Amino acid sequence: MSDASINASTIREDEASFGDYFALLKPRVMSLVVFTALVGLLAAPVPVHPVIGFCAILFIAIGGGASGALNMWWDADIDRVMKRTKGRPIPSGKVEPGEAMALGLALSAMSVTMLALATNIFAGAFLAFTIFFYVVVYTMWLKRSTPQNIVIGGAAGAFPPVIGWIAATGSMSVEPWLMFALTFMWTPPHFWALALFMRSDYDDAGVPMLTVTHGRPATRKHILFYTAMLALLAVGTAFSDIGGPVYLVVAMVLNALFLHGAWKISRRDEEASEADNFKVERGFFKLSLLYLFLHFGAILAEALLKPYGLGGWG
Description:
The protein is mostly helical. The protein folds into two domains: 155 residues, Tetracycline Repressor, domain 2; 141 residues. The chain is built from 15 helices and no strands. Helix 14 runs antiparallel to helix 15.
């Protein structure tokens, strides 16, 4: 084989595919954004035309993806060090940082503009603020400067149901902020559990996660505290306008399981085997994924049952 053929083959192998550019949008995170925004949209007390609703969720998803691309652009140096992220498109060399930045900026502008046109200016402006908060406040500032990065920065991931509600109503209300608070309070124990069994990644990258700055025992106590506060909020939400009997049952069961898991984590002995600790922490992390999905699923169920006189308390 000639040198030219070898070079051509290498170029083809290194070329970014559609899947690489799509990976920049953090599709797993985007799926959570889509689902919580959809619940916010459908839980609102205003009927939304299906086409408008579809457009709203599409543009919110694109805005979330744009945030992910800009996050990967800025964090490329960290991603190259961490085992969990070194296979991402930029660290693996498949996508240039400038391409990720350009894609993120373009999608940001498009999603904000189109959401404003499809629904209302308030929703578009709030999406713009959410992108700014995630990229500038969290990614560029908090993530590398304080162990409270996840606590404060978690607000960015909690905004989608509020945006969905605003897209439907054009106004604010208490209910979307209850959904915001649910995600906001869930974020720290969720990510701290991840940090417990992935601590070496944050150590190597120099990210001041709580496990790095305060140690594992302190992180375990923080997880228990936030889980207890989350349980009070989650169960209390059952008695709001977005709650009801279905939600209450789901919240009672899930929060009992979540509190039990947090208690087990808080009681872990640092001298115990790494495999035992890993199993408990990873199990809690997996439960946390199910926790948020089922809470929002219960809110959605209550909203869908209301037209038939079955949802809510009355």
